[in-house]
Design brief:
20 helices, elongated, four-stranded antiparallel β-sheet, 706 residues, six-stranded antiparallel beta barrel, alpha+beta, 48% helix, 5 domains
């Protein structure tokens, strides 16, 4: 505690005070600017009045002057309480050995081991590239046009007109992504992405310069080695107008949206080519990315600062986190502590919910980044970086909070909150450890017990199509379609003369000395020509598509007309046996051992109007499915099984899945279409904890390559 007569440490001469927008309750606040560190500190009215009279030298003189000149009631202790804050942030002039020692101590605390330095700088670091102040002054007359109401109204009208025209060409618009499959498309993307982000950052810089703020640097920030442009607009904290700060914070998003509007018009007007492809990307993906990333208030991007200014809550994240931790501790243990600051009930509720939302959002984002870096680098480095992400962003914050709980364990009393937490913990452990899971759920599809798809074995013309209506019954061998192949006809025409000549030569060989001298050559040639003709006739017979068994025609390709061309492997018709049904279930490897033949199962279709089907497990494949025939289950078509196309464009499951057959389903009816759904299979009991352990172990074995 300082004496009332003790001299106050002098403030640094370059510090400056600026009026700031008032607090939510209307109380005035100011920004204290440290130009050396380019940091701003928000201070209250009382702190402003005391710092304004700091040169009076003593706590007594400062408090007396404040009380005489204002309606405030300031004590000497209030003045003294500012000293630790000022010294901690090095806002006072260095004086004597004590100050030097404190600065050296702070420097030592900032130093870290090389591995900790590497981790921090791998996670995030900035590289300033340009000092744009002179450039901004040069383009100011032009850039100021973009902040006028006429420009914003023009952009709005252009956006509405562009959307109306895009809807008229919607099919062409949504199918335009094929422009990016070539090397030229990749180069176009590599050019347009930085262009959009440069426009975004210039929007921030021009807005800041318009309102008198200096922009000391623009450059590249690396977040987990991912480059992102940034603009230093810290001087926006000097502005007293909240509206001006909102414009600076949202200028980047508005600039990129305006670019998207102009790019949409470019796509509408330009001919096909790389320029039109670039315009299409700017008109779609770029602005979607900026809205999804920059507009999010859950990370410290544009959306965060916009929301903080709209709500008049500076330091929104730290303040909401303080309320979140306070709520969590009071809910779990009932410490009985006061809330971090006095706010209205509605604001307290918002800050708690917002903190929980940020924690959940960041958990998902950081897990995604961890998986991304794992798959991006080679396996050893990927595992290391994955561990760094999980430990630094997830494990450390959780363990830090648990450490606080442990340190305050003596404060935990026998309160209802404690008993409630213990009860919920006991319930959670029981649900986790007890073997209550007696079934396995897996994606499945229900269809006819037998179904055959008839496809064209070769390209050809449709020359005969019996009048077989959809859903009509057919017998085995009934003709459903007849094709003729020009290629086969041409090869037959070319082979027939040779076969006829060989046959004549074999018949005349005994009467002709020249033919007789050729011996068995003529006979072998005849056999070869006959074999070729027989093969062509076999291929021709395959062009007669017949019903493979007694059943019902469940599909006919009505787009194929008599005399029309049928492509190779084109689906012509399907025949199914509708007397009984069957369910194919695709079970993951870790659940396979829990299922036994003869167990019961229940199939729940996505189309709930068909009701549930009770079945029996009649077959289990012991070899994983290499190709997924049921396209509706593939993620490529919106299904639940993650797949990727192979070189032949066939769908292969990413992780091993085994097919399980269900029969004897009740009801035994077969719907007119195949039904996708979920099957619940009877299985041996296991606990969720064991399931998680098995999943983690299988993942470890698979990824380690053991």
């Amino acid at each position: 505690m300082m004496e009332a007569s003790q001299t106050l440490p002098p403030l640094r001469q370059e510090l400056a005070l600026f009026p700031a927008p008032p607090q939510r309750d209307g109380s005035p606040v100011w920004s204290l600017h440290d130009p050396a560190a380019n940091q701003f500190y928000l201070i209250t009215w009382a702190a402003f009045e005391m710092l304004s009279r700091w040169n009076l030298g003593t706590p007594k003189a400062v408090s007396t002057a404040v009380n005489q000149a204002t309606t405030l009631n300031v004590e000497d202790q209030d003045v003294e309480a500012l000293v630790p804050f000022l010294e901690a942030h090095f806002l006072t002039e260095p004086q004597g050995a004590a100050t030097t020692k404190r600065m050296l101590s702070a420097r030592d605390r900032m130093r870290s081991s090389w591995w900790l330095w590497l981790i921090k700088n791998y996670l995030f670091f900035r590289v300033p590239l340009v000092r744009p102040q002179r450039f901004l002054e040069t383009i100011a007359p032009l850039s100021n046009i973009f902040f006028t109401p006429h420009f914003l109204l023009s952009m709005f009208l252009l956006a509405v007109a562009a959307l109306l025209l895009v809807f008229r060409h919607w099919d062409q618009f949504i199918n335009f992504f094929t422009s990016f499959k070539s090397l030229e498309g990749i180069i176009t993307l590599a050019i347009t992405i930085p262009l959009a982000k440069i426009i975004h950052e210039l929007g921030h810089a021009c807005a800041a310069h318009r309102y008198g703020c200096k922009v000391p640097a623009m450059g590249v920030a690396f977040l987990v080695m991912t480059p992102m442009l940034y603009t230093d607009t810290n001087e926006a904290w000097k502005l007293q107008s909240r509206r001006q700060r909102l414009i600076i914070g949202s200028a980047g998003i508005i600039a990129e949206l305006a670019l998207a509007v102009l790019a949409t018009w470019a796509w509408l007007l330009l001919p096909d080519g790389s320029a039109r492809g670039a315009a299409f990307f700017l008109a779609t993906t770029a602005w979607v990315m900026t809205l999804a990333l920059n507009a999010s208030p859950f990370l410290r991007f544009d959306g965060y600062f916009i929301l903080a200014d709209l709500l008049s809550i500076p330091n929104l994240h730290p303040r909401s986190f303080a309320f979140g931790r306070w709520w969590l501790r009071e809910t779990l243990f009932g410490f009985g502590n006061h809330e971090p600051e006095t706010v209205t009930p509605d604001l307290r509720r918002f800050l708690i919910i917002f903190s929980l939302a940020v924690w959940i959002y960041r958990l998902v984002i950081f897990l995604g980044i961890a998986l991304l870096v794992y798959h991006f680098f080679f396996k050893a480095l990927g595992i290391l970086l994955f561990a760094v992400e999980i430990i630094w962003f997830i494990a450390l914050p959780v363990t830090s909070e648990i450490k606080v709980w442990w340190e305050r364990r003596s404060e935990i009393g026998q309160t209802p909150a404690l008993y409630r937490s213990l009860f919920l913990l006991a319930i959670g452990l029981l649900l986790l450890l007890l073997p209550w899971q007696a079934s396995v759920s897996a994606p499945a599809i229900l269809g006819a017990a037998r179904e055959q798809r008839l496809v064209a074995p070769a390209p050809g013309w449709l020359i005969e199509a019996p009048a077989t209506a959809l859903n009509s019954t057919v017998k085995a061998g009934d003709l459903l379609a007849s094709l003729t192949s020009p290629d086969i006809d041409q090869r037959k025409a070319e082979s027939a003369p040779s076969a006829s000549l060989s046959r004549w030569q074999v018949n005349q060989q005994s009467f002709n000395e020249e033919l007789l001298s050729q011996g068995n050559v003529l006979q072998k040639r005849l056999h070869g020509d006959a074999g070729i003709l027989h093969g062509l006739k076999s291929e021709e017979a395959r062009l007669q598509l017949r019903a493979p068994f007694d059943g019902t025609v469940v599909y006919k390709n009505d787009e194929i007309m008599l005399g029309g061309w049928v492509a190779d492997r084109e689906w012509v018709a399907s025949v199914a046996d509708l007397t009984r049904n069957r369910v194919d279930v695709y079970v993951e490897e870790m659940d396979l051992k829990r299922i036994n033949i003869g167990g019961s199962a229940r199939f729940i279709p996505d189309a709930v109007e068909y009701g549930a089907f009770n079945c029996k497990i009649t077959g289990i494949d012991r070899v994983s499915t290499t190709l997924l025939d049921d396209f509706s289950l593939a993620s490529f078509y919106g299904g639940p099984i993650l797949t990727h196309p192979d070189e032949q464009h066939q769908l292969t499951p990413v992780s091993p899945h085994y097919r399980v057959r269900l029969d004897h389903c009740a009801p035994g009816s077969v719907p007119p279409v195949r039904l996708r759904g979920v099957a619940h299979l009877e299985a041996t009991r296991q606990s969720p904890a064991l399931a998680l352990f098995r999943q983690a172990w299988l993942t470890l074995i698979r990824e380690s390559g053991l």
